[in-house]
Write a structure and sequence with these properties.
The complex is a heterodimer.
Chain A: E1 7-11, H1 15-28, E2 31-35, H2 38-47, E3 52-55, H3 64-73, E4 81-86, H4 89-94, E5 101-104, H5 109-124
Parallel strand pairs in A: 1-2, 1-3, 3-4, 4-5
Chain B: H1 9-22, H2 24-40, H3 48-67, H4 69-81, H5 86-102, H6 109-200, H7 209-240, E1 248-250, H8 252-269, E2 273-278, E3 286-288, H9 290-306, E4 312-320, E5 324-331, H10 338-341, H11 353-359, H12 365-375, E6 379-384, E7 390-397
Parallel strand pairs in B: 2-4
Antiparallel strand pairs in B: 1-3, 4-5, 5-7, 6-7
Helix pairs in contact in B: 1-3, 1-6, 2-3, 2-5, 3-4, 3-6, 4-6, 5-6, 6-7, 7-12, 8-9, 9-12
The chains are: A alpha/beta, B alpha+beta.
Chain lengths: ~130, ~400
């Protein structure tokens, strides 16, 4: 086990939701980075190596489907855990096969926090 | 009377005309009498007083018509214009023929017959032509009237179609509006829920028991609100035909257990008993949309608890032959009258407006159950008597995974 915390990107444009997801991931033990715009998300994905991405599908700039494609394309990020958080059940379920989990909004803080701790244990003990 | 030994047809005609003109008055009187004898007895359409006029005209007509057959046409047209029938005109021409022949010497009869025939033919032709004209005019009139009627009808149909289109659009707009709003409401709802949970989990410092209790109340109410929005969204998607099933493998026994565990606290709160009965013949793995089937059973159980004050609820799942399976929810509640049974599956219907208000809910639970069951090609039915409890039975197609 290292001291460096694994990185989680929280891509969600709603400020309150972003705060909740970020807090849940922080509590689970991740270093977190809040992103509220799709274009910024693509930029950051070129610069950092997250092990977890919390992805809202409807963000300004570039939609979540495109961001997910980019994550799965780049060798550096393709193995990252991705949890979709969305109220758009149709869109989310069409992407289900490419992600670890789909959570339909409203997402429970404790549920997300609990799930994130499970993934962090996995990534810490390969 | 002069005897024209052998003359040609047109000369004979001239002769006949001259004869006729010379004795016009006598001829007319005689002709009138002939007509009276021949027509009056069996022609109801012609009054005796008219016979005289017709006779004068007809006598003139044949006098002129014998030498000028085209005049026969004109007269025929006139007669048909008077509204006389073809039968009458034929009779008239028969009388004329006989009458003409009485004034012709017997040697000339053959030629006179030809002249009279030509006259008769042109008379009939005039009648037919005029009739044809009348028929064409009538057809034209009918066609015009029809076109106007069709035009009006088309406009009306278009109006009705427009109205129907507007009604459909309005209804769809309402449904889409509800879908969008319920969707929009989820975002702030999610924030309220998440923030309350963060408070409860002491993310912002420890809470006193009273603060903890009040936070729990926020969370409970948010969950209630979420359930209502979910029902609105489900209902609008069902109305739009946009609710799609996500089928997979599931265990009906697990499903019943989940619903049991989730609803048990509600039943215990009202001191009701709750039991699960599972049929050993029911396969442990089926194909279906587990979340939606769970929603169906859960709605029925929550409803049963809502309308039961004493006694309890039994959840029963069983195979129904090899191709169907059933989920049954029996309660010892207030029961449902026959009249109400007819409406309980309608959206926004509640058996008792007052008790509905007291017990909560927007009246979509059973409507959603029925619509979900329908898209699963199943049926839902109820057996109940007032005061005797109710039994809801959902019957679904049974499909097992192929190995």
């Amino acid at each position: 086990m290292t001291d460096t915390k694994p990185l989680a990107l929280i891509i969600e444009d709603n400020e309150d939701q972003n705060l909740i997801f970020t807090t849940a991931l922080t509590q689970a033990g991740y270093a977190t980075e809040s992103i509220r715009d799709g274009t910024v998300a693509l930029d950051r994905l070129n610069a950092v190596t997250p092990t977890m991405v919390i992805l809202d599908l409807h963000v300004p700039g570039v939609n979540g489907g495109v961001i997910l494609r980019e994550i799965r394309k780049a060798p550096r990020t393709q193995n990252a855990h991705v949890i979709i958080v969305s109220a758009d059940a149709e869109f989310a379920s069409s992407l289900q096969a490419q992600v670890d989990l789909v959570l339909l909004k409203p997402v429970s803080f404790s549920q997300l926090s609990h799930l994130a701790s499970r993934y962090i244990k996995e990534s810490k003990s390969p | 009377m002069e005897n024209p030994a052998s003359v040609r047809v047109h000369e004979l005609a001239d002769y006949l005309v001259k004869q006729a003109q010379a004795h016009r008055t006598d001829l007319i009187n005689q002709y009138r009498q002939s007509l009276r004898n021949n027509l009056f007895t069996n022609r109801t359409e012609m009054r005796p007083s008219e016979i005289g006029n017709v006779a004068v005209e007809t006598a003139d007509a044949w006098i002129r018509g014998l030498s000028q057959p085209e005049w026969g046409m004109e007269y025929g047209a006139k007669l048909s214009g008077l509204g006389l029938s073809e039968q009458t005109i034929l009779s008239l021409s028969q009388v004329t023929r006989q009458f003409v022949l009485t004034v012709v010497e017997k040697d000339d009869i053959r030629q006179a017959l030809d002249i009279v025939d030509a006259y008769q033919d042109s008379l009939t032709l005039g009648f037919m032509k005029n009739l044809e004209k009348l028929i064409l005019a009538e057809q034209e009139r009918i066609r015009g009237a029809l076109q106007i009627a069709i035009g009006r009808y088309t406009v009306e149909i278009k109006d009705i179609q427009d109205m129907a289109k507007r009604a459909t659009e309005a209804s769809e707009f309402k449904t889409r509006f509800i879908a969008r709003i319920s969707h929009e409401l989820r975002t702030p709802l999610g924030a309220i829920l998440g923030i309350s949970e963060m408070l409860q989990q002491s993310v912002y410092g420890p809470l006193t028991p009273a603060q903890m209790d009040i936070t729990q109340r926020i969370i409970n109410n948010t969950h209630n609100l979420e359930r209502i929005f979910t029902e609105f969204l489900d209902q609008s998607q069902l109305e739009l035909g946009q609710l799609h099933l996500r089928e997979g493998e599931f265990s009906p026994q697990d499903l019943v257990q989940t619903v049991y565990s989730n609803t048990l606290p509600l039943a215990l709160k009202k001191q009701l008993t709750m039991n699960v009965e599972t049929d050993s013949a029911l396969p442990s793995s089926l194909i279906g949309d587990r979340a939606r089937i769970e929603q169906i059973l859960s709605n029925l159980v929550v409803n049963a608890i809502k309308y039961t004050q004493t006694g309890g609820i039994v959840l029963h799942v069983a195979a129904d032959g090899s191709e169907r399976w059933i989920m049954q929810v029996k309660d010892t509640g207030i029961g449902i009258s026959k009249e109400d049974q007819a409406h309980i599956f309608e959206a926004f219907h509640q058996v008792d407006e007052n008790s509905g208000r007291e017990l909560g809910g927007v009246g979509l639970g059973l409507a959603i159950v029925q619509q979900l069951v329908a898209i699963m090609k199943g049926t839902v039915s109820v057996k109940s008597e007032v005061g005797q409890g109710s039994t809801f039975t959902v019957n679904l197609p049974l499909r097992v995974p192929t190995r």
